[in-house]
Amino acid sequence: MTSALIADGLTKRYGRRTALKDCSLDIPAGHVVGLVGPNGAGKSTLLQLACGLLDPTAGRIEVLGARPVSGSARVGFVAQDTPVYAGLTVADHLRMGAHLNPSWDGALAKQRIAQVGLDPAQKAGKLSGGQRAQLALTVAAAKRPDLLLLDEPVAALDPLARRNFLQGLMELTAEQGMSIVMSSHLVADLERVCDHLIVLMASRVRLAGDVDDLLATHHRLVGQRRDNADLGAGRALVDQSHTDVQSTLVVRSTAPIDDPSWQVDRLDLEDIVLAYMSGDTGNGPDRVLEGKR
Amino acid sequence: MIWMTWRQFRTPALATGALLLVLLGGLVLTWAEVTKLAEQTGYTGCQGDACRAAGEAFLQALRPKWASEFHLAAIAALYLLPAVVGIFWGAPLVARELESGTYRMVFSQSVSRGRWLSVKLAFGGGVAGLGAGLLSLTLSEWAQPIDGASADRMNPLVFAARGIVPVGYAALAFVVGVTAGLLLRRTVAAMAVTLLVIVGLQIATPFVVRPWLAQPVTTITPLQVEGNYGISMSPDTGEMTLNLQPEVRGDWVVSSTTITSTGAEFKGPADMTQCGPKALRDRETCPAWLEKQNLRLKVTHVPGAKFWTLQWREFGVLFALAAVLSLVNLWWIRRRLV
User: Best residue in B110, B123, B333 to probe A by mutation, most A CBs within 10 Å?
Assistant: First the structure.
């Protein structure tokens, strides 16, 4: 499988502050990839390195098989807080896109603007947060990049605007077939659109895999309290919590768990991500699991 | 890229352009008046020695007219233009993109940062230079009879508001503004620094750079005490200095000092019986005494004929500075920005 983005020992420092430290990951192409992680995990830095806005302090990054440079026609980027030119109208933004991108798809841009109900004559500074995000997404998408990077595009939006935005994103992927990498700290948003998930914690990949696989192989076990449960081969403990009488485990296992002393439940994606995030503090970093592709 | 540059640039450019148009309009409207006055006072077409008197009469007649107000306004505008261009065109150019985060949008289009900045620098610097050049050359043409009559073209204050030097100042000021915005990343801070740098440049150039560029000539002549001169002396020690206005019409006098026969600056001491408050007939005895001191006048000056040479040299220095700063900017935006 080809890779959209490969990082190897990638490090970015701002003066004495390290934003991303020794990060290695491989993001497959042809997917809608969700990049999850707590604040400060390095998601934004990674995406800005990937679109060439930042230069790495150390390490290597390759995007679509080449070192990223800003101004590349193949990579689109929607930055955090979706900046737009306040003094320019919606139509001006489309003209800017048409002038600055040889691969510009004017028809797509016009159609999307009409679809999301933006008035072309309106100044971008007067748009709501959701409309601004839609405009930024339209400009990035009409460039027709092979890879579209979105940095927390829905973080500031209300639930309705968020749903509309993600809806628009899904339509784009269905029609254009571009690879998308989208960061967020809201797993519920990603669950709706992503088919591949990467959990980034403190610059490390805690979990990576196809969403269907992750859902199928993670289980919650609830049973009588026991401190050192032997789970058997092929099974890994992700997270555990105990009360006086009861133990709750999150376990990764490719084979179904048929031990009758456990009550076995399925987990949704958010539970899985949270299990890895909280499990990270209690357990050592040797538990990094890599999903099958 | 050119469309985008123009779209973002047009508001400040049109505002500044409107002000320039008002001044140009004023010059055009008063053009006939200046020409007419020069003819009426006999300055136009004068010959030889008559020109001094006719020129004086022409300047005298011009003084109460609107034209002389416009003359001053145009000179002031040419001094203000670099500051305006640097502060309102240059400083926000990059700084505002960085502040509002829109650099992340424009740098994700299919345009490299280097190209983005070089188009903006060329466009802004070019328009600034064009505007300044239009006003300056129109003013130089308009003021030709005035400059001829007053022989004041080399005056440091007038010199920078004539010919092509204003073009260099405007272009350099624009690049200085862009540089400040790029390095400081804050619009307001960049504006303040730009103002300081430009004003500093406008003050430093006539005092430091221009004398060095002009390579002034030094002439030593015997002192003619009959002329206009000023004496300052200390009544206790008798130390005195002489200030003479040398008769070098149309030249820029960089310095003029009175020297003794040995070449040192003349500092007295004066003969207290001939000069100063204790001398009874100071007005008669003092010049006579000075005449006997064998004094000379040492004048460092730039001949008026070197006007265009000096214009080109100063323009060249300003333009080269702007070019070097532009290259630094281009390197910085590629390598050092974010």
Answer: B110
pLDDT recorded at residue A1: 55
Consecutive H or E run containing B42: none
- Check if the beta carbon of residue A36 is closer than 8 Å to that of residue A189: no
State the pTM of this model: 0.87
What residue ranges do the domains of chain B occupy?
2-215+306-335, 224-294
Q: What is this model's ipTM?
A: 0.83
User: Which of A178, A202, A226 is the last residue before a domain boundary?
Assistant: A202
Judge if A101 and A231 occupy the same domain. no
Phi then psi for residue B220, to 5 deg, are -120, 120
Same domain, A86 and A197: yes
> Which tokens hold the place of B330?
């281009």
| C-beta neighbour count of B74 within 10 angstroms | 22
Q: How many residues are given for chain A? A: 293
Straight-line distance from the first to the last Cα atom of chain B, in angstroms, rounded to the nearest whole number: 22
Contact B34, B146 (CB under 8 A): yes
Highest mean pLDDT among A40-54, A153-167, A176-190, B260-274: A40-54
Q: Do A181 and A79 have their domain in common?
A: yes
Q: What is the DSSP string of B261-302?
A: TTSSBP-----TTTSSTTSTTHHHHHHHHHHHT--EEEEEEE
Q: Which residues span the domain enclosing A216?
A: 212-290
Percent of chain A with pLDDT over 90: 32
**The domain spanning residue A133 has which CATH number?**
3.40.50.300
Q: Do B105 and A139 touch (CB under 8 A)?
A: yes
Mean pLDDT of A204-217: 89
Chain B residues with a Cβ under 8 Å from any Cβ in chain A: 1-4, 7-8, 11, 100-102, 104-113, 115-116, 335, 338
> How far is it, in rounded angstroms, from Cα A57 to Cα B13?
40
Q: Which residue has the higher pLDDT, A47 or A278?
A: A47
**Cβ(A196)–Cβ(A35) below 8 Å:** no
Largest interatomic CA distance in chain B: 88
Domains: count for chain A: 2
Query: Are A102 and A221 in a shared domain?
Result: no
Question: Between B104, B109, B335, which is nearest A100 by CB?
Answer: B109
A101 and A58 in a single domain? The answer is yes
Q: What is the Cα–Cα distance from B94 to B107, expressed in whole angstroms?
A: 12
Instruction: Kindly state the tokens that stand for A1.
Output: 């499988």
User: Based on the domain organization, do A130 and A15 belong to the same domain?
Assistant: yes
